[in-house]
């Protein structure tokens, strides 16, 4: 509890949620007093050059921005000349256990809102320019110093034709220089600009806010595999019509009735959310164990060591349903609390009492590469 209060600058979770979350920025000096970062610039660049990593390289020269996307080669980070630059790596928590541990500190926000841990490195002057994001973010400073400028301005016009979303007019209202362990919370659409003062690494803990349009479109995608609509078109009473190209009202009425059979309830919406929000991003793949343990050996290992989710796994739950990496499973009534425990903490301790049915599920997920004995 003490860590969380320090993390939130002395506020309780309830106070932070009431007064700041989604409402206004909050600067927290020494949010994580001993935090110095989880990796050094070279390790971040090595990560950016990895196969299954989403990374961006932003360069800046004479007010003009350049943007490149991964995959990268080490040579891409060789010669920048006079250009200022920054590299940003998404999903660092998928590669670094310490990244996942860092995210656990933010479990006071539901996992269904979590996006990922992004880490950036920039030498002096580097940054991505003034912009706004459509998610909530905690910007935690690692090594070095970053000047953060923010504005609550309403004008969100972007520079046309720029490779990045850069605000055309940015009027700074407040600014601070953050050092290791300091943190800035920004609600969605709060304009901000971060400029590296020296060799600077920033850890962004991001929480997504999907648009209703995205949710509705994706719900229809989810629904299309699950709907059941009976019957087929028939027109034994067909009447001759003057214009054969016209869709007749009888056809329209019949199809309208057919489509009205498409129904959904709250459980469909909950299960859609569980699948959609736990769905891995397209570049993420799970590695099945190369020489998998037999089910009996797996169960022994879980008894002895406990079990933990793979760093890339996302697990959510709702009302007896478990969602893992975009798949849904109905848990037995007795198994649900245990699986929810696994989803909450990403691990189960040794000597946990696990039913046969639940062990079978865990074994299936082990074979899929979603979890491992600890
Ligand atoms: C950065 O770490 O340089 C950018 C983070 C952000 O502005 O969202
Ligand atoms: Co931003």
Explain how this protein is built.
- The chain has 374 residues and is α+β, with helices and mostly antiparallel strands.
- It folds into three domains: 2-207, Jelly Rolls; 213-262, no CATH class; 295-373, no CATH class.
- Helix content is 26%, strand content 24%.
- It has helices at residues 2-7, 13-19, 41-48, 97-104, 212-224, 249-259, 266-278, 295-305, 336-345, 356-367; strands at residues 26-28, 55-61, 64-69, 84-89, 114-122, 135-141, 146-151, 174-178, 183-186, 191-196, 200-208, 307-309, 315-318, 321-324, 327-330, 347-348, 371-373.
- The strands form four sheets. An eight-stranded antiparallel sheet has the order 1-9-6-11-5-4-2-3, with helices on one face.
- The longest helix is centred in the middle third of the chain and has 13 residues, at 212-224.
- It is globular and about 80 Å long.
- The two termini are 26 Å apart.
- The model has no long low-confidence stretch (mean pLDDT 96).
- Cobalt (II) ion is lined by residues 131, 133, 192.
């Amino acid at each position: 509890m003490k860590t969380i209060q320090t993390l939130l600058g002395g506020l309780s979770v309830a106070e932070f949620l009431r007064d700041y979350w989604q409402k206004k920025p909050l600067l927290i000096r020494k949010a994580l007093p001993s935090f110095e970062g989880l990796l050094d610039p070279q390790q971040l660049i090595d990560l950016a050059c990895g196969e299954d990593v989403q990374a961006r390289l932003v360069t800046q020269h004479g007010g003009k921005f350049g943007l490149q996307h991964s995959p990268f080669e080490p040579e891409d980070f060789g010669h920048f000349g006079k250009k200022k630059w920054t590299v940003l790596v998404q999903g660092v928590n998928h590669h670094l256990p310490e990244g996942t541990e860092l995210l656990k500190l933010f479990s006071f926000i539901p996992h269904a809102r979590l996006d990922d841990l992004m880490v950036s490195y920039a030498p002096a002057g580097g940054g991505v320019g003034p912009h706004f994001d459509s998610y909530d973010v905690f910007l935690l400073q690692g090594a070095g110093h970053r000047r953060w400028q923010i504005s609550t301005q309403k004008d969100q016009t972007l520079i046309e034709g720029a490779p990045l979303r850069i605000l055309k007019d940015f009027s700074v209202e407040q600014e601070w220089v953050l050092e290791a362990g300091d943190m800035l919370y920004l609600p969605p659409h709060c304009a901000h600009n971060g400029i590296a003062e020296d060799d600077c690494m920033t850890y962004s803990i991001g929480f997504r806010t999907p648009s209703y349009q995205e949710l509705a479109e994706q719900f229809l995608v989810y629904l299309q595999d699950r709907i059941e609509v009976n019957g087929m078109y028939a027109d034994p009473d067909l009447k001759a019509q003057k214009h054969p190209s016209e869709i007749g009202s009888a056809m329209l009425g019949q199809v309208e009735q057919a489509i009205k059979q498409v129904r959904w309830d709250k459980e469909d919406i909950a299960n859609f959310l569980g699948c959609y929000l736990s769905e891995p991003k397209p570049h993420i793949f799970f590695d099945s164990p190369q020489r998998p343990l037999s089910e009996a050996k797996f169960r022994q290992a879980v008894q002895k060591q406990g079990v933990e989710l793979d760093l890339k796994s996302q697990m959510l739950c709702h009302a007896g349903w478990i969602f893992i990496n975009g798949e849904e499973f109905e848990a037995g009534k007795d198994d649900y609390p245990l699986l929810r425990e696994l989803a909450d903490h990403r691990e189960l301790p040794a000597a946990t009492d696990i039913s046969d049915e639940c062990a079978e599920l865990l074994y299936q997920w082990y074979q899929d590469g979603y979890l491992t004995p600890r």
